[in-house]
Amino acid sequence: MAAKIRPLIAGNWKMNGLKSAGLREARNLARTMKKHGKPGCDVLVCPPATLLAPLRDAMKGSHIAIGGQDCHGNEGGAHTGDISASMLKDTGCAYVIVGHSERRADHGESSREVRAKAEAAHRAGLRAIICVGETAAERKRGQTLKVIGKQLADSLPKGSTAKNTVVAYEPVWAIGTGLTPTVEDVAEVHASIRSRLRRRFRDDGAAMQLLYGGSVKGSNAAELMAVANVNGALVGGASLTAADFWPIVETCI
Ligand code: PEP
């Protein structure tokens, strides 16, 4: 029997959070976690880059990891406004999200670029959370599994392992909309991703954390987390306050 995969609940704050509110929520989260004891999952917060160091300090000793929301594929150099994976590592990050659909759409990032970013993350000793997901039009055309298969093939580096890589399935139409796929749809996509990962990465593919993301909240988290091959969640809006985020973490206790 395959070993149980430890879930990961990851919060993506996107471009939200100034110092006072961000620190308040991070401290609330750390306090809540301390009160309830270490949960049965890994917990991660990915704030904007400006809050990485303050949150690292505010949540010290809490077992809550911090991560970046993106990184450049190069180590350094003339890339104004970008941040490298080693800079994130140097600031105390353990993870970085790459290939989020908002980056793919707003910045025209291709899966090839996403793969270069994931490789940079691996070189720096970070775990890359690699996002894939179909648009509403692609789902309507019945192309969901094909689109995701191609994104996986092109975005995951050759050297991906269960230790350095997490895959997040995020249907683009479910992000920030309040819409979620049915549990049957999530099960179908996650089974397909798992089988592709297993085929390509063998035991590592079988053991990789596979997250669902897209309008996860306290009220639907337990149902989504119970789906086969769902090993946690990538959470946007509902990760911004400890009051909203904790009930999602709690589904793993
Ligand atoms: C996300 O941005 O990764 C996300 C899943 O957002 P939300 O939870 O707000 O849909």
- Secondary structure tally, helices: 11
Please mark out the parts with pLDDT under 50 across 5 or more consecutive residues, or reply none: none
Could you say which structural class the secondary elements and strand pairing correspond to?
alpha/beta
By CATH, the topology is TIM Barrel
Helix content: 40-55%
**Please, what is the average pLDDT?**
97
Per DSSP E runs of 2 or more residues, the count of β-strands stands at 8
What string gives the helices and strands in order?
EHEHEHEHHEHHEHHEHEH
- Terminal CA distance: 23 Å
CATH superfamily: Aldolase class I
The description of the largest β-sheet is: 8 strands, parallel, barrel
Measured by DSSP, the beta-strand proportion falls in 15-25%
Radius of gyration, taken over Cα atoms and rounded to an integer in Å: 17 Å
CATH class term: Alpha Beta
| Count of spatially separate domains | 1
Shape: globular
How does CATH name the architecture? Alpha-Beta Barrel
Strand order of the largest sheet: 1-2-3-4-5-6-7-8
Bound molecules: phosphoenolpyruvate
